[in-house]
Amino acid sequence: MALIEAKNLGKSYGALRAVHDVSFAVDRGEVIGFLGPNGAGKSTTMKLLAGYLRADAGTASVAGHDVAEQPIEAKRHLGYSPEGAPAYGEMTVREFLRFAADLRGLDAPAERVRATLDLCRLTDVAAQNIDTLSKGYRMRVGFAQAVIHDPAALILDEPTDGLDPNQKHEVRRILKDMASRKAVIVSTHILEEVGELCTRVIVIAKGELRCDEPRDRFLARGADLNQVFRTLTA
Amino acid sequence: MTSPSDSTPTARPNGRAAFAAVVRREFAGYFRTPLAYVFLAVFNAFAMALAFFVGNLYEAGTANLDRFFLYQPWLWAFLAPAAGARLWAEERRQGTLELLLTWPVTVWQAALGKFLAAWLFLACALLVTFPIALTVGYLGSPDWGVIANGYLGSLLCAGACLGLAAIASAVTRSQVIAFVTGFLACFVLVLLGYGVFDGLLVGVLPDETVDVIRRLGLWRNLEPFTLGLFDLQPTVYFLSLAFAGLGLSTVIVERR
Ligand SMILES: Nc1ncnc2c1ncn2[C@@H]1O[C@H](COP(=O)(O)OP(=O)(O)OP(=O)(O)O)[C@@H](O)[C@H]1O
Ligand SMILES: [Mg+2]
Q1: Which of the four pLDDT bands, split at 50, 70 and 90, describes residue B59?
Q2: Contact A60, A49 (CB under 8 A)
């Protein structure tokens, strides 16, 4: 059973067709690099999978639960960090993660919060208001709330956006560490990330699937990934 | 680098845990900034000022608080939208709505949790005025049942205003806009049946129409409570407004 599945997903904003007939399935151990130009429909697809937006067409499921019909079950198995990693700025990092743990009804929430702070290297700023964090830390807080319950499915919308090279490396390392036990989708504009992190690549443009193939086949398309990307999304 | 614990975290997810977490976060949220204390102080100061200067509480010479409670619709019209403005507008502004709604909690649980937390905060404001009741108790021998009824009526009135505030907060990402629209909506309900405005209508509209308008206002519905009468009709009126506001705001948030 695929842990994350999109079947003929479609979503329009008024007259604008943001996502059209997108299907794919992600199994345990896979890390999908989700690529596409600005406005391609990556975030929209992720919001549909996460159950934030309702699809006009098709279905989405997480861990075998349809996100429209069994939303609570689906969301229990999902970690999702929206684009820009929003968080309650007026809370401290620890309070925020504790809220996430309590809301999810996790056992031993204090212990979970401590382990997650440690995992995401946030312990130093645990008592700091999220508002006052630098971008790198804020992105990691978004990541932390998504993994606090060690979900089977993980959807991260541009988790390395705006991070310095060290922080990018850090996030990728944490991700790779847990990837074997999860199904992961990561959207990104950094093509080099594909080689470093992903096992498979999905490219969309203008709301439609352009390419879905193993990493190595994608990398074999050409030496210049930017050129490959331009051709695929043209 | 530690892996996220070798044993998968166990969870006993249930709606009540999620609901309780929301109530706790929202309620604590009010006290995160000094604004909450300003709010409580302002409420208290104005409640006293209205009672003594507008209501002539002392000159009335009786040991009861009807004058104190009578003017509270004005206060709630202003302060319930102030407390309710952040409910959804702030979630939208910060983008956290997308988090909350992708966590395992239903919109209804989240909305009810938020609403109750805000209502509880308004109850705190009311509680802070309790010294005035003690003063009356010291000066005379009031009917405590009547006073308790007054507090109940005021709290219900607060819930009704909060219902309108919740709707206003659900439609925008700006707390300022949420506050202003919420206030205007409550203000209309205060005016219906209020002295000056009421006077304008009398004689112009048929008496029955004026009476219906009065019944739709906060004023007329609070009155029996201040006199120590527990009446079902005004109770239903206040609760309907509160629940209609809660329901409509939830539906608005759910449509996305
Ligand atoms: N709430 C909305 N209302 C109207 N149009 C929207 C809305 N959200 C997104 N869109 C439009 O839908 C299309 C797809 O947007 P989406 O955010 O999914 O793209 P994206 O691939 O994530 O882009 P980016 O790389 O810039 O993040 C865009 O044309 C965008 O303008
Ligand atoms: Mg995007």
Answers
A1: low
A2: yes
Write down the H helix ranges in chain A: 42-50, 71-76, 93-103, 109-119, 135-147, 165-179, 192-197, 215-219, 225-233
Q: Does A150 touch chain B (CB under 8 A)?
A: yes
Residues with CB under 5 A from ligand 2 (ion): A 42-43, 83
- The CA distance from A202 to the nearest CA of chain B, in Å, is 23
C-alpha span between A93 and B36 (Å, rounded): 22
At residue A205, the 3 state secondary structure works out as: strand
Task: Give the one of B17, B99, B105 whose C-beta lies nearest to A82's C-beta.
Answer: B99
Contact yes or no for B104 and A72 at CB 8 A? yes
Tell me the CA distances in angstroms from B189 to B120, B183, B232, one per residue in order: 22, 10, 19
The domain over range A1-77+152-167+178-226 is classified in CATH as 3.40.50.1000: no
pLDDT of residue B53: 72
Give the contacts of A41 (CB within 8 A, at least 6 positions apart).
A11, A18, A19, A22, A204, A206, A207
How far lies A123's CA from each of A60, A89, A130, A175, B183, in Å?
Answer: 35, 17, 13, 18, 43
Hey, where are the domains in chain A? 1-77+152-167+178-226, 90-150
Q: How much is the ipTM here?
A: 0.94
Structure tokens at A120: 């995401």
Q: Distance between alpha carbon A217 and the CA centroid of its chain, in Å?
A: 23
Measure CA B53 to chain center. Answer: 24
Chain B residues with at least one Cβ partner in A under 8 Å: 1-5, 8-14, 17-18, 20-22, 24-25, 29, 32-33, 94-96, 98-99, 101-106, 256
Query: Which residue's entry shows tokens 């910060």?
Result: B94
Q: Apex CA B18: angle with CA B126 and CA A109, to 5°?
A: 110
Q: Does A149 touch chain B (CB under 8 A)?
A: yes
A112 by DSSP, 3-state: which?
Answer: helix
Which tokens in the block code for residue A7? 């079947």
Name every chain A residue with its beta carbon within 8 A of the beta carbon of B17: 102-105
Which pLDDT tens digit goes with each residue over B19-53? Answer: 999 999 999 999 988 888 888 888 888 888 877 77
Interface of A with B in 111-140 (CB under 8 A): 112, 115-116, 118-119
